[in-house]
Amino acid sequence: MNTETTSLKVPMVQSRAAHMREVYRRYGIVAVLIVLCIVLSFANQYFLTVGNIADILRQTSINGILAVGMTYVVLTAGIDLSVGSTLALAGIISASLVTGAHPHSVMFGLMAGLVVGVAVGAINGVLVARLSVPPFVATLGMLSAARGLTFIYNDGMPVTDLPDGYLNIGTGAIAGVPVPIIIFGVVVVMFWFVLRYTTYGRYVYAVGGNARSAKTSGISTRRIIFSVYVIGGLLAGLAGIILAARTTSALPQAGLSYELDAIAAVVIGGTSLSGGSGSLGGTVVGALLIGVINNGLNLLGVSSYYQQVVKGVIIVGAVLLDASRKKQ
Amino acid sequence: MNDLLVEATGVQKAFNGVRAIDDGRLSLRRGSVHALCGGNGAGKSTFLSIVMGITQRDGGEILFKGRSVNFQSPAEALANRIAIITQELSPIPGMTVAENLYLGREPRRARVLVRFKALIKQAQDLLDRLGFPVDARARMSSLSLAQIQLVEIAKAFSHDCDVMIMDEPTSAIGERETEVLFSAIRNLTAHGAGIIYVSHRLSEIFQIADDYTVFRDGRYVDSGRIGDIDRSYLVSTIVGRKLNSAEKSRRPVGKPVLESTRLSRKSEFNNISLTVHQGEVLGIYGLMGAGRSEYLNCVYGLTRPDSGEVRLNGRVLPVGHPRKAIQAGLSLVTEDRKETGLVLSASVRDNIALSAYKRLSRLSFINRRKVRTLVETMVGRMRIKTSSVSLPVSSMSGGNQQKVVLARCLSTEPTCLLCDEPTRGIDEGAKREVYKLLDDFVTKGGAAIVVSSEAQEILDVSDRVAIFKSGQLVTVIDGHTTTQEDLLHFAS
Fold this sequence. Notes:
Order of helices and strands of chain A: HHHHHHEEHHHHHHH
Distance between the termini of chain A: 33 Å
Number of helices of chain A: 13
Oligomer: heterodimer
Number of helices of chain B: 17
Number of strands of chain B: 24
Low-confidence stretches of chain B: none
Strand content of chain A: under 5%
Shape of chain A: globular
Largest interface: A-B, 37 and 39 residues
CATH architecture of the largest domain in chain B: 3-Layer(aba) Sandwich
Largest sheet of chain A: 2 strands, antiparallel
Radius of gyration of chain B: 23 Å
Low-confidence stretches of chain A: 1-14
Number of strands of chain A: 2
């Protein structure tokens, strides 16, 4: 009897310890973000103004939306290097359809952009889930191919003269809130909910945590893996439309190396690159952190060369801090 | 109505032209526990994965409740109420116990939303009903190996199956948990289910099984009622030859090699003072959670003690430095060879020589000749069966893998060997060889500590036995005169 009661206690204590670790892990990065904001608000009085915060959020929205999709992919122990190219391809196709001699409706252009994103994601998904190409290789190939197609599509020329209805997606505001921020918020809430509360979301974790076990439990691991690349593509398409609308033209070189910022946001947010653990909340904080760093360094007048160095150091530092907390 | 739940005949399967199983047969009666016995490489695991639909058979027939079946996936077998607890634990570390238990069949709202409260309640009810001390809300990554195994067992029970296959279900758990498992098994068979039970622990088979079937080298050899045979008959049928039980002679005992003084680590073990001498095997026995492995890990330097010290050959070991412990002459044979003991994808050669590369190289250039000599010596001495030392260890049987772990540990020429469950999941024959190797090592002047949850194993190898209970050292007794009853008496 004695041993039973003692052994009963062990897992309880462990789970509480695990819970504490979880709390540390989540709020560790939040603490970094808050400290950084405080420091910047003292360093530059413009930092903590409504206008600047809206700026940060608007700039973050593109990377944030990409990072949401990236979180899904990384949770399955995959990676999607092609989102920057997908963004450009979807943006330029979508933009070209609403301009020119016979423009289609804005709605048609939007849908087309999303469809392009889904199509690219589906190709990635088939390569990874069905043909067992390693995600790194499959999406590296796509990074190159989709970028090439983007240049071919419009002979390397940007698409300009976008109609007002289209531009509103990037520059408009509803009740004073910029549209990109609203879209970003909706995307985060929707995909957070799916990940947290639906069986599908739990299966994404399961596949990344232990694919064999998931398979034995009757989960179609292929379908789950395929779907996360489609989600990645869809959100890249969406980001492409927003970027084109915000910059008032779709450039073939848009979104170069955006995949790296998206991956950085995911990693800073505490999602494990080996899959199975992490959260969308963390990713959002990670994306905000990157946005704040960019914005803050601009305000402080740091040259863009130094900015890159500082950003790199902060990314690695944040993750190091996270790792040391996890060890406790 | 047919009384047989499963009737398999002439099951065949080859991998890349190599016969894994040639003539697999088994008849499982309703409401019975059927022990499937055989050494490593006898074809048991292949046979079971065919029954379960994990692997597709090349030939033969399997009748399930009198109906011929050929499952294409484990999910299909599950749908037909056949579940398996595999030897390989496959938890999803980032998810909770409850989520792991009901993965793929969570209680839902509106078909896609998980009802977490109901899920946790359902899982905790199941665990409590089985008597498993695990919190359904805990993350899998926070559980011990034994608890993970209990969760895997609970998962199989949760399917409410007619046939349950258990492949080494007790390899990671202690004897007390085994008792809990056995009462759960009896409960299941009382309701008419049938169980195919695989275990290398023969005493378990005699305790729980009704029938037995023996495979050897991929072929059916014998079957019958367990009540009609005795242990030595079963052993000789499995091995195919007579086996002498481990002969243990008293060796001359030399000077102290490893001494721990009042070693403590909070909530793991408390105030442990033990000494092991040259020419001696010290066994450590205790139930799950007694702090045996934790003690060993601390001595080796994987964890830091809160107080106390460890001396090796008279010199104090620095705490928390496995590398320095190895240099000083310690070596640890780990409990979980797949996770921590071996680099599975690397070759046999690399695995054996990994720890010794430093000794066998100059200016980082490896002396290939010395490596070859070392590897050849070890393969010969350990009788490791492999067609080439360039093959990855993942291609070997469990017994051979464990010998590779031992070979690596011995390649650093330690003075004291720490073994944590050195024969977990390997067959009788390979176990004897491991014992023999330990005996050789100690006879040549080495010292060894062996932690095991199997009382028989402790008695087979130990000169003295230290018994742990809830983190305390209860007593140290003579290993030559002790019986299993004594061990259990002190440990529980």
